[in-house]
């Protein structure tokens, strides 16, 4: 496993990897710029209400309004930084084929080109994955917060399972129908789970988590190829 992880890290400078990273980061920034614009538009109405109130209730209302506005922007920026990797996690699968081709060209040149999934299928899959991940983590949130130690490990177990399943099946579908990809994943659930836990750890590390989806795709492709060749 560490060999596969090393290969994924070692290919970070590959032109295809850089291309996917900059496109995904740029698209994520555009999305957040739109969200910030909407937030600013909403705050403008809030400011108008505060100004009207301040004019009638004096300096205290004015100071309170200024503090509320500052807190609102802090929350918007803070949530943006936290959610930025998640948005990239949703965008990068759109460029799965670019990453997979680069990995296969370097390490598996004997392989025939894999099946390129339709764009709609990829988009729906990404949205579904993010939705399921958010829902499961919201359900598990009380356990994370109120069960010391166990909650900490549970974060990695839950997200490790979700990430391992998603990335393994996403890569496997380039070679097998979905039903066979799921069957192979279930047959090797322990290996996939442990691989997913490593990905979950990377997702929790600031800065590194921005690049994690690219590494995850390359890493899981190596894990998939190793798994299916051992099964032959």
Give structural notes.
The chain is globular, with a radius of gyration of 22 Å. The model has no long low-confidence stretch (mean pLDDT 78). It is built from nine helices and no strands. The two termini are 19 Å apart. With 232 residues, the protein is mainly alpha-helical.
Brief write-up:
The protein has 232 residues and is mainly alpha-helical.
What does the main sheet amount to?
none
Helix-strand pattern:
HHHHHHHHH
Count of helical regions:
9
Strand elements, count: 0
List the helices and strands and how they pair.
Elements: H1 2-10, H2 15-57, H3 59-91, H4 96-107, H5 119-146, H6 150-172, H7 178-187, H8 189-203, H9 208-231
Helix pairs in contact: 1-9, 2-3, 3-5, 3-9, 4-9, 5-6, 6-7, 6-8, 6-9, 8-9
Main attributes of the structure:
single chain, 232 residues, mainly alpha, globular
């Amino acid at each position: 496993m560490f060999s596969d992880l090393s290969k994924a890290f070692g290919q970070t400078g590959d032109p295809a990897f850089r291309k996917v990273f900059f496109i995904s980061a740029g698209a994520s920034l555009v999305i957040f710029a739109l969200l910030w614009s909407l937030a600013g538009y909403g705050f403008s109405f809030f400011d108008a209400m505060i100004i009207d109130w301040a004019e009638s209730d004096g300096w205290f209302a004015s100071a309170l309004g200024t503090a509320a506005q500052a807190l609102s922007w802090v929350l918007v920026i803070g949530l943006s930084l936290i959610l930025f990797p998640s948005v990239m996690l949703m965008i990068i699968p759109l460029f799965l084929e670019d990453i997979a081709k680069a990995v296969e060209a370097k390490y598996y040149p004997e392989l025939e080109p894999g099946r390129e999934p339709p764009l709609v299928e990829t988009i729906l899959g990404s949205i579904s994955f993010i939705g399921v991940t958010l829902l499961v983590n919201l359900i598990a949130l009380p356990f994370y917060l109120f069960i010391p130690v166990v909650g900490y490990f549970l974060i990695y177990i839950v997200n490790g399972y979700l990430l391992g399943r998603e990335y393994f099946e996403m890569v496997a579908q380039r070679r097998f129908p979905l039903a066979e990809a799921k069957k192979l994943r279930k047959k090797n659930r322990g290996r996939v789970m442990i691989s997913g836990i490593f990905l979950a750890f990377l997702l929790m590390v600031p800065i590194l988590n921005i690049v994690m989806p690219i590494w995850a795709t390359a890493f899981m492709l190596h894990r998939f190829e190793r798994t299916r060749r051992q099964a032959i």
